[in-house]
Specification:
By secondary structure, the chain is mainly α. It has nine helices and no strands.
Length: 195
């Protein structure tokens, strides 16, 4: 079982890094917010860099486990209705899970300062989700559920507007209901066109 103090440190570090960026977060403030001494913080992590790396590792695993990844694919839908339901579940998780929202904010702000974060941002905002859906669409095509097309292009067509609307939810939370409705319409249009 993971050390509960380490979990608390990483949870609070996620909030602080998302709010202030890597450079704007200092360990004294982190320790104060956790009601720990700075030396107690150092018992668990040797440096801010170590917290940063552990946090990125943790959030990458958290996302892959709950959303999916190339190595951890969701179940392949057996119908277009299942595709709709699966996608809406993934969107709901992405838009409403507080850790994922904070991680997305962190990735957006730090992608220009950290090479690993840049790669993670590209993976989560573009390539990774497309790869998941390319495999899903290829298997759905093989099962006769979708028209035969280039699965990579279909995945791009499917995920790009949804990703844009998810970013809108982050920037303008008051538009979330409208954005969610637009995402549903995008998925329904895709199913009507390619299903």
């Amino acid at each position: 079982m993971e050390n509960t103090t380490k979990i608390r440190i990483l949870d609070e570090a996620l909030i602080m890094f998302a709010e202030n960026g890597y450079k704007g977060t200092n360990l004294r403030d982190l320790a104060d917010r956790l009601s720990l001494s700075k030396s107690a913080l150092y018992k668990h992590f040797a440096s801010k860099e170590e917290i940063w790396k552990a946090l990125l590792d943790r959030m990458e695993a958290y996302y892959a486990e709950r959303f999916g990844s190339e190595n951890h694919l969701p179940d392949i839908p057996k119908s277009c209705e299942e595709l709709f339901a699966m996608t809406m579940g993934m969107i709901d998780f992405t838009v409403n899970d507080s850790k994922i929202v904070l991680t997305r904010k962190l990735l957006l702000t730090e992608q220009f300062h950290d090479e690993r974060v840049c790669k993670l941002a590209t993976k989560h905002f573009l390539g990774g989700t497309e790869k998941i859906f390319a495999v899903i669409f290829e298997k759905m095509m093989a099962g006769g559920l979708l028209k035969k097309e280039d699965p990579e292009m279909l995945a791009f067509v499917y995920t790009a507007p949804i990703t844009s609307l998810i970013h809108l939810c982050d920037r303008e939370p008051q538009k979330k209901p409208e954005a969610m409705e637009q995402m549903k319409k995008c998925i329904q249009h895709f199913i009507r066109t390619y299903g």
